[in-house]
Write a structure and sequence with these properties.
Layout: H1 2-23, H2 28-35, H3 40-49, H4 52-65, H5 74-90, H6 96-108, H7 112-139, H8 141-144, H9 152-181, H10 183-194, H11 199-216, H12 222-249, H13 260-270, H14 280-291, H15 297-326, H16 330-341
Length: 342
């Protein structure tokens, strides 16, 4: 119990730090003035596109689970994603990542450990896809350099991280291929590498590694693995399209592909386990809008507040509707995830 409250205190502190960096030097009068600049029809389109990633993620999940259950209902996967993201947005610690497979396991009567393994695979491929797209962004630099209005020093850092992203994508790809073809040996290597860590950390390292390997069992061929990677690109290109439409609503007219580095930054911020992505998403969103596209920081702050609030509102409303139809409460599904975490 003490450890639980300590974790909450650390998360709360991290949230405050990022929020402080986000809110500092913001002129609120100017920020609220900027909020009214949005184009109405494009903002409606933005709201309608918010659930898009829930659908594309569900299609990708169904593809991964096809060898286990071919008749798996796509709607159940969409429900599981929506409920899981609702829990993640409302509570700290990313408990929703465990709620998603548990919810689907109950709906489809599947093995929970298998489904938890697929979530680890999903997150790894999310990182892989983002690094790959950032690498493509870097390689196509001559095509878009005239559109970037950010500070030269900021763009220099972006190109550095773009190169790092390419290297990380290659390393992840080689690691995934190696683990796929050498699953049994990989289990022994993971347990061996985890030995120097303290007992609690060792257990988590082993669990993560073994769950990932367990998830790789669903790739019965290298072509299915490449197919899953292609669907991962679809997921993140869809997310980029959502943000691009939002940018257009506020008069930021840039080529579609230039949304990729912003998405990469917000992914980094959203991965920080704060409730509702508070702080991390906000800071990195504002950083991307000012450093990449040269926006005024008051406009960047206003746009971040709008898009962040919209995502929380739409996702949570959909999540509550699904829970209501299923006869469940938010606390019940949250407890479900916390029970597995222990």
């Amino acid at each position: 119990m003490k450890r639980k409250y300590l974790n909450y205190a650390i998360i709360f502190f991290i949230t405050l730090v990022f929020l402080w960096f986000f809110f500092r030097n913001v002129n609120w009068a100017e920020t609220w003035h900027q909020l009214g600049r949005a184009d109405g029809p494009l903002m409606v389109a933005t709201f309608l596109l918010i659930p898009l990633h829930l659908v594309t993620r569900a299609i990708r999940w169904k593809f991964l689970l096809w060898p286990l259950k071919r008749e798996l209902r796509l709607w159940n996967a969409i429900e599981a994603n929506t409920v899981g993201f609702t829990v993640t947005l409302l509570f700290p610690g990313r408990v929703g990542e465990l709620v998603r497979p548990l919810y689907l396991a109950r709906k489809e009567k599947l093995s929970t450990p298998y489904l938890i393994g697929t979530i680890v695979v999903e997150r790894t491929f999310d990182l892989f896809a983002n690094c790959f797209l950032l690498g493509l962004f870097l390689l196509s630099r001559p095509l878009y350099s005239s559109y970037l209005q950010g500070r030269p020093e900021a763009l220099k850092h972006l190109y550095f991280w773009g190169k790092a992203g390419v290297i990380l994508a290659i390393v992840l790809f080689l690691l995934i291929i190696t683990l796929y073809f050498m699953k049994e040996k990989a289990r022994k290597v993971i347990c061996f590498l985890a030995k120097p860590f303290p007992e609690k950390i060792r257990g988590r390292v082993e669990m993560f590694g073994l769950e990932f390997i367990e998830g790789l069992k669903f790739f019965h061929s290298i072509f299915r693995l490449l197919g899953y990677f292609s669907l991962s690109l679809v997921v993140w290109l869809g997310i980029s399209f959502f943000y691009w439409v939002f940018f257009l609503a506020y008069g930021l007219k840039i080529p579609y592909f230039l949304a990729v580095p912003y998405v990469f930054l917000t992914m980094v911020g959203a991965s920080i386990p704060t409730p509702g992505m508070a702080g991390g998403f906000d800071y990195f969103s504002k950083l991307g809008l000012t450093a990449l596209y040269g926006l005024d920081q008051n406009l960047a702050a206003g746009m971040t507040i709008v898009i962040h609030s919209a995502q929380i509102l739409v996702t949570c409303v959909l999540g509550y509707v699904i829970l209501w139809k299923s006869g469940l409460t938010l606390m019940q599904v949250r407890s479900l995830g916390e029970g597995t975490e222990k």
